[in-house]
Structure formats: C-alpha cells, structure tokens
Amino acid sequence: MLINMIKNKFKIKFLPLLLSFFSLICSAHSEIMILNGCKNLKDGFIKNEYILDLKKSLMTRNYIYDSKTFKKHRTTDLSIKKKNSIERFIYEDKDLILTDKIGYPQFYTQLIFKKNDPIIKIKTVINNEAAVSKISTCNKVEIFQEES
Predict the structure, then answer these.
(1) 49 near 62, Cβ under 8 Å?
(2) Residues 31-53 pLDDT 10s
C-alpha cells in the first residue's frame, strides 16, 4: 500500500516535468514569407501581395486591379471584383514552394515560389508537356519566424 502511494506521488510530480519537456521539444517554428509590390507581366495592380504561411500550408494573395486591368477582365467575366483575396494550399518540394494544382489532370497550372526570391513563376502542364514562365517580380520579400 505504501509503495503504491509513493509511486502515485512520483507520477504526480513527474507528470508536469514531462509535459513541459515535451512542450519544449514540440514547440513549432512557423515561417511566413510575404512578397509585396509584385508587378505582373500582363496585368496592372494597385496592390498585389502574396503571403505564404508554411506552417498552415496556405498562400493568401491580396490584390486590387488598376482601372485598365479591371475593365479588361470585366468585359469577359462579370464576376470579377476590383479588390479580391484568394487562398491556395501550398507545399514544399526541395527548395521550392508550390501551390496546389489548379485544373484537370491533362491541363493544370500552379504557382512556384523560392524562399527569399522576388520572382514568382507559373507552371502550366498540357497533356504532360510542362512549361514554366515568370509571371511576376516583387519589390520586397520578407520572412518572419514565429515561435509557438
């Protein structure tokens, strides 16, 4: 009986120490990369930024079309908004950060980023034929480390 009481006291004292040790080991470092002032090769923007949250595996793009670009897209698609935000899932592959594939298996596109690189590329695949081209160059790249 006495031995069981001693074991229980030891478990109670040891448990908080064990939990704090695991919290130190499991403390996650998240990295957020922000690309600001991105100039697109085809369209004009008042604001065009990309926020890549590597911990959440999420890219958020916030943009505002300039008047000329908005009118151009509005003539073919009435659902276009001047100010918009889109989210896409992302994943890392070696030194690249890629968005999920958008489209069908025979035809899809995805954005390609590199850490600390202001150039954004797009990969287009049609019937297993891939092409990569530059779509945007950003004025500023910032990387933030967050500890949780």
Answers:
(1) yes
(2) 999 999 999 988 999 999 999 99
104: in domain: yes
CATH code: domain of residue 104: 2.40.128
Classify residue 24: in a domain, yes or no: no
The domain in which residue 86 lies consists of 30-147
Q: What is the pLDDT of residue 29?
A: 53
Q: Has residue 18 got a pLDDT over 70?
A: no
The DSSP 8-state label assigned to residue 27 in this structure reads P
Q: What is the distance of C-alpha 6 from the center of its chain?
A: 51
Tell me, letter by letter, the H, E, C secondary structure of 58-113: EEEEEEEECHHHHHHHHCCCCCCCCEEEEEEEEEEECCEEEECCEECCCEEEEEEE
The amino acid present at 121, given as its one-letter code, is K
